[in-house]
Write a structure and sequence with these properties.
The protein is an alpha/beta fold. It has 12 helices and 14 strands. It has helices spanning 13-24, 46-55, 74-82, 110-129, 180-189, 207-217, 237-245, 265-277, 314-317, 324-342, 357-361, 389-395; strands spanning 2-7, 31-36, 39-44, 63-70, 96-102, 142-148, 152-158, 198-200, 258-262, 286-288, 303-306, 347-352, 367-373, 376-384. The strands form 2 sheets. A 7-stranded mixed β-sheet has the order 2-3-1-4-7-6-5. It has a 7-stranded mixed β-sheet with strand order 10-9-8-11-12-14-13, with helices on one face. Mean pLDDT is 92; it is low at 312-322.
Amino acid sequence: MASYFCPCPRGMEAALAEELGEIALQSTTMKVHNQVPGGVHCSGHLLDSYLVNLHSRIASRVLMRIAHASYANENDIYDLTLAQPWEDWFGVDHTIRVDVTAIKSPLRSLEFTTLKIKDAVCDRFRDLVGKRPSVNTGEPDIRIVGFLDQRNFTVYLDTSGEALFKRGWREETGDAPLRENLAAGMLRVAGWKPGTVLFDPMCGSGTILIEAAQIVQGTPPGMRRSFAFEKFNGFVAAPWQAMKAAVKPNVLPLEPTIFGSDISGDMIEMTRHNLRIAGITFEVPLKQIEAQEVKPPTAQPGILLTNPPYGERIGVRGDSTMPADEMSVSFYAALGTTLKQRFAGWTVFLFTADLTLPKLLRLKEARKTPFFNGALECRLFRFDMVAGYNRREEAKPKQV
């Protein structure tokens, strides 16, 4: 049995733990342990790492713990890494990459620490077979990850390879595309489930729509890509193929439940293309229209979830001749009016780095959940558009 750490975007830890608990129901050996900032610990058989890589929409990677010990300096890190049986996992002809992250580590240089870990792995092979594996920072066969806190060092072997948000379908994107695992985490935090109407009125390249459509279809996120564990020594393909063969597609809805729109015709075409490449076999209706002009796509209320533009991107969707601040105020004031007038009964979720968004919309959020998009601090704002919202707003005394 092995210990694993599944990193995720900060703020998504609870959603990932919930998802891993659901994945663990398919296994007799996998157990989910504690959440920590930036990820979730779990344990299980090596095959459980295959299962998580195949099914997790929120994890960034699945890291297998190789060793853990206290340290005082870089030499302690070198010695611990050198002592590990790397030859059990991969050969000298595999290319490697080493990455290190740290929280409150007293060591002065993470670059030097990274070099010491790389040297230890290479020296291990040189001592055993007289050759050193080559380093490839672009597309390595094997990734080794070190983590340092104030007192302890943990070294991991990455079972994923490319980050898990890379689902294997994306060919083209718009500006600043939303990462797939962040979109999936937002869908879970928003409480969306297949059968609930979902609408993204600023869909961009379609990331939120595609994540939802794959969930409706029952397509695992890792179905169309390869993983680092397939290059491990002794990898047997049969259990992995059986795991993928066990996936059964869901019965598709008779009527559309997922809808998207965007002001850009190019984005609509890109979304259509991406839906095809991602293997979506049912209709996701798309419309070219400004966000402030949209109407609900169904009579039945649902969830509106979108990553609205901010800063320079508003120029793509608004009047680029207006100054940025004035353009932003105008855009969001009109969007807020549309939501109040037309989306009674809907639950609206807006994901943004602009923490003043509720004020711009002239709406009071029901909840705000902090998330990080990389290093960028963001919020997922929830607005409950109850019936009569706009009439109450109009009835308020006007300030003179």
